[in-house]
Amino acid sequence: MATTFPVSHEVQIPSFSLVGKKVFVTGGSRGIGRACALTLAAAGADVAVSSSCTGADCAKSVCEEIRDMGRKAEAYSFDVVMHGEVTAMCAQVNDDFEAIDILVNNAGVARDGVFRKMDRCAWDEVISTNLTSVFDITKCFIDGMAARGWGRVINISSIVGQIGNFGQANYAAAKAGLIGLTKTLAREYARKGVTVNAIAPGFIKTRMLDHVPDKALQSVLDVTPVGRLGDPMDIGASALYLASPAAGFVTGHVLDVNGGMAM
After folding, report:
1. What is the pLDDT of residues 189-248, one digit of tens each?
2. CATH for 22-257, among 3.40.50.720, 3.40.50.20, 3.30.300.130, 3.30.200.20?
3. Which of 94, 163, 186, 194 lies at a C-alpha separation of 20 to 30 Å from 253?
4. DSSP-derived secondary structure for the chain
């Protein structure tokens, strides 16, 4: 006998409101992180913003913009590769906001070079910052989300983690690792009300592209069907969807935001 399921004809309008939610965005002082922090705040969330020590002033500026929206915001500066600092700062975030419902793991660095010339220091720094720190930070929050029966973890990966890129073996490995971590956590926490997803941006107009030669950028545009670089707010909008109640049936997904560069 076939199993039947009740069908509801009631129309439920999807909600993108984050009123009452508490968000933590790592690497939130500039670029993609700033865009995510401002977008989620505009949807009603209170936001904790972390940065490196060099980005502390920018993180405070982002918090001022969020407070102008009428939301709570606090800035935190720490080195994500230092386990002790991560543990202490995440504990402080939990105390200040009472709980974190939505975690956006965005902090990252690039130390580019062809593999033949890449040394172990450049490899370790990128892997530690872009991948291992996500393990450490997520550990501090995800079980609390599960205990409350609701949570969102959004990992900022990259198109480079999917297709590779010349001179970025370390960066590509870290971003690919994020995708594997995302899918595994999604399976482990799905029944506990926590979704875990990744966003894979293409080439976005941030400081990371400041030193890319114009000829190289033009080659990127030539293979991008929409014919432009991405804007950080393109990623912010994607994070809002994945963070929202409307995305409750989406988990273990990698959302490509690359203008069609890779399909």
Report:
1. 999 999 999 999 999 998 878 778 889 899 999 999 999 999 999 999 999 999 999 999
2. 3.40.50.720
3. 94
4. ------------------TT-EEEETT-SSHHHHHHHHHHHHTT-EEEEEE-GGGHHHHHHHHHHHHHTT--EEEEE--TT-HHHHHHHHHHHHHHHS--SEEEE-------B-TTT--HHHHHHHHIIIIIHHHHHHHHHHHHHHHHT-EEEEEE--THHHH--TTBHHHHHHHHHHHHHHHHHHHHHGGGTEEEEEEEE-SBSSGGGTTS-HHHHHHHHHT-TT-S-B-HHHHHHHHHHHHSGGGTT--S-EEEESTTS--
